[in-house]
Amino acid sequence: MAYNKPNPDDRSDNVEKLQSMIHHTIENMEEAEKAMEFSSAEDRANIEAKNERRRHSIDGFRSEIRDEANARNNH
C-alpha cells in the first residue's frame, strides 16, 4: 500500500506571489471603476462595495508580505 507524502512547505516565493496578487487585485479594481461609468446606480454601489473589499484584501496581502519577508530574513 502506497502512502502519500505531504508536499514540503515551500515558502520561498510567497512574497512574489503575494505581490502578484496585489497587482492583479489593483488591475481588477481599475477595470471595475471604468465599468462604473456605464453601470446603473445599483451596479455602481455593488462595484464600490466590492472595491472596498478589495482594498481590505490588499491591506491583508501587504501584512502577509511583511510577515513573509521577516520570516525569510530570520531563517
Q: Work out the number of β strands.
A: 0
Tally of alpha and pi helices: 2
How much β-strand is present in the residues? under 5%
Kindly report the average pLDDT value.
Answer: 91
Low-confidence stretches: none
**Structure class:** mainly alpha
Give the structure's gist in a few sentences.
This protein has 2 helices and no strands. With 75 residues, the protein is mostly helical.
Task: Describe it.
The protein is elongated and about 55 Å long. With about 80 residues, the protein is mostly helical. The protein has 2 helices and no strands. The N and C termini lie far apart (about 35 Å). It has one domain.
List the helices and strands and how they pair.
Layout lengths: L13 H23 L4 H34 L1
Question: Which descriptors would you attach to this protein?
Answer:
mainly alpha; 2 helices; 75 residues
